[in-house]
Amino acid sequence: MATGREIAQLCGVSVATVSRVFNQPETVNEETRSRVLRVAKELDYRPNESARALSTKQSTMIGLVWDTDHRRPGWRHPYLQDLLIGLKSALSAHGYHLLMLATSGDAREVGASLADPVGYVNMTRRHHLGGLVLIDSGSDAEAFEAFAQSGVPCVALDVAVDGPRATYVTSDNFGGARDAVRHLVGLGHTRIATITGPPGNQPSDARVSGYRAALREAGLESRDEYVVSGDFYRASGTAATQRLLALESPPTAVFAASDEMAVGALLAARAAGLRVPRDLALVGFDDIEIASVVEPALTTVAQDKPGFGVAAAKAIMAMITGGECEGPLVLPARLVVRESCGAVGDG
């Protein structure tokens, strides 16, 4: 790949002129600018991002803080994969680049870990990153608060943070869960259980609150034995459903806080000789791809996964360019009715 000096020599201009073409194009006449850009494209020249950040006082590099340790399964969840596609696409469309920062075992090499978020903040400044996108892997909320207070532009995904240049993006988890349970109530179900995500996780807690709110609206009792914790993954959905079906008065409907757990619930119901939805109605949350391809297809609460990433990208870009830091961005969640839930006793 060519250097800026080589581009300057081939175009008969100074290195400073080449730099201005990429950093302050309005200061270079059109003929020279076109010549430099044409030669740069032919030789696959790319300006040094760190030097460019120093020159323009504005970085196009965004750090992604996400602990992808193999012992923490969050990175494998289909929901997060779709979200990242939206984030990266939106940043790329505006000339920004997403850089995953070293985490877990690699963190020792760079002096940064979520146990010591100061290392990440120092890395951000050392590499002239414009800001940070934060994805929680299960127990990172405390570290994210430190990031938010650092003054570095930060956008967290599904973690409430508060700071001078920090905000977060989430879905209407409460409203989505409430709509799911309202739907089951409308079908005549009165014994409705829920499989939650990990306690203390913001989306999980909001979905439990929505579940309880819908029961109160319907005048139904919230029974402790009908609230079973999971971890958003399939195996926990299976184990939780086995517990629920073993109760003296098992539920006729289950609202699972993720589609993965709802699929696990479906497998447990089949293993117990039950038919969905005749013997057990199921509703999930997320609307990942598997929700529409299992049989019966899952009724679920859809999150705008690409839109989630786009909202995060817009927020971080606005802060980098000096715009105001918006308050929490809450995206709507939408009930998608399919075949996995029906009226009580329907065959």
Automatic annotation (TrEMBL):
Keywords: DNA-binding, Transcription, Transcription regulation. Residues 2-56 form the HTH lacI-type domain. Gene3D superfamilies: 3.40.50.2300, lambda repressor-like DNA-binding domains. Coiled coil: none annotated. The keyword Cytoplasm does not apply. This is LacI family transcriptional regulator. The gene is lacI.
